[in-house]
Amino acid sequence: MLSIMAMSGLFVPAEDGSQLCVFDAIYADIGDEQSIEQNLSTFSSHLTNIIRILKAMTPKSLVLLDELGAGTDPAEGSALAIAILEHIHRQGSRIVATTHYSELKAYAYNRKGIINASMEFDVQTLSPTYRLLVGVPGRSNAFAIAERLGLPRSIIEHARGEVSDEDQLVNNMIASLEENRLGAEAERQTAEALRRENEALRASLEAERAKLEEQREKLLQKARDEARQLVAKAKREAEQIISDLRKLALEEGASVKEHKLIEAKRRLDQAEPEPAGRKRPAPNAKPQRIEPGDEVMVYSLNQRGHVVELSGEEALVQLGILKMKVQLSDLELVKRQAAVNKTQQPTAAASLKRTRDDRASMELDLRGSNLEEALLEVDRFLDESFLAGMGQVYIIHGKGTGILRSGIQEFLRKHKHVKSFRLGQYGEGGAGVTVAELK
């Protein structure tokens, strides 16, 4: 019926993906066409239809045969049915045949291109389940149905004894296949449930992963925005600091005092975002005991130094060649001074020597110093000499490679207290000394 509907262009009640063939003809031998008037028995009626079908069918035909070989001796009927099926199969036609003969079930089991199928039947309720089981031959269930309907057990047991060994073997084979099918069906249902559970879990994990990825992207975007804001702020602070340094250079004739440079550097360091690894102690944290001689970290300058002396809430800290007063809350103890010789103050990072009394010396000995340290000391020395009213001073830098001499003379050329300068003459130290005349 479905094939006829499909060939007529009608919709068919089937699942998506189902396939149907287009046949040139559909032949059927169904029902009991026995006729007393025409002297036709059941077997004769079936055989007459089958002969007509065999003459008209082609390899593109569909042949439907109901209870093939019925109505005559079972042995002869089953043999004739097998021969008819074999002939139709060789012709290439599609065929569906129903039967209760065990011989036909065994034939389909062993013949390539032919397969058994059955409609599932519930023996407990004596009703069909309307499930097609491909690959499993059906059982007649005559004994089970007779027992359920109330036939005496003695008669049923006697009937079982009359069944031939071959028929019993076929029935046992069908029962085994049925049992295996039920087991496979149960395992399939279990596997299907596990598959659905795994798919649900996979979908949940995928949704969670997508959610985490979205949160991660939001956090990254937030971090990028904050970083851009911090960098923009640092740039604005740096530009302001550079502008202030330029103003100082113009106001003081390119001679900017060291304490002003330190202050500018402190502002620049504060403009930089504070690293996550170093944090100020909490306000309610237990204060550290800091003593003179201890090595400390100055938070605001991000530099290490040594404590020279303590005065209330402040400490005098030696930072290289500089000394600064810093709040104790701005310090972190790095290393405590050894217990031995606590009265000895830490030495400066660079040692500069004077040749005479520090209070009013006309000479500054810079031999062994680097250029940066030497320029800082020359600037301080010129200020002190100018305030002392000296007209001429001697700066000893040695001959060496000439880098120290050239740097000092370039610095003197722009200094506001220097009127002129020259190299030392014979008896004054020659090229190892620069003589500067002050204003």
From TrEMBL:
<keyword id="KW-0238">DNA-binding</keyword>
<keyword id="KW-0547">Nucleotide-binding</keyword>
<dbReference type="Pfam" id="PF20297">
    <property type="entry name" value="MSSS"/>
</dbReference>
<dbReference type="InterPro" id="IPR000432">
    <property type="entry name" value="DNA_mismatch_repair_MutS_C"/>
</dbReference>
<dbReference type="InterPro" id="IPR046893">
    <property type="entry name" value="MSSS"/>
</dbReference>
<dbReference type="Pfam" id="PF01713">
    <property type="entry name" value="Smr"/>
</dbReference>
<dbReference type="InterPro" id="IPR027417">
    <property type="entry name" value="P-loop_NTPase"/>
</dbReference>
<dbReference type="InterPro" id="IPR005747">
    <property type="entry name" value="MutS2"/>
</dbReference>
<dbReference type="InterPro" id="IPR036063">
    <property type="entry name" value="Smr_dom_sf"/>
</dbReference>
<keyword id="KW-0175">Coiled coil</keyword>
<dbReference type="InterPro" id="IPR045076">
    <property type="entry name" value="MutS"/>
</dbReference>
<keyword id="KW-0067">ATP-binding</keyword>
<protein>
    <recommendedName>
        <fullName>Smr domain-containing protein</fullName>
    </recommendedName>
</protein>
<feature type="coiled-coil region">
    <location>
        <begin position="174"/>
        <end position="251"/>
    </location>
</feature>
<keyword id="KW-0699">rRNA-binding</keyword>
<feature type="compositionally biased region" description="Basic and acidic residues">
    <location>
        <begin position="261"/>
        <end position="270"/>
    </location>
</feature>
<keyword id="KW-0694">RNA-binding</keyword>
<keyword id="KW-0378">Hydrolase</keyword>
<dbReference type="InterPro" id="IPR002625">
    <property type="entry name" value="Smr_dom"/>
</dbReference>
<feature type="domain" description="Smr">
    <location>
        <begin position="364"/>
        <end position="439"/>
    </location>
</feature>
<dbReference type="Pfam" id="PF00488">
    <property type="entry name" value="MutS_V"/>
</dbReference>
<feature type="region of interest" description="Disordered">
    <location>
        <begin position="261"/>
        <end position="294"/>
    </location>
</feature>
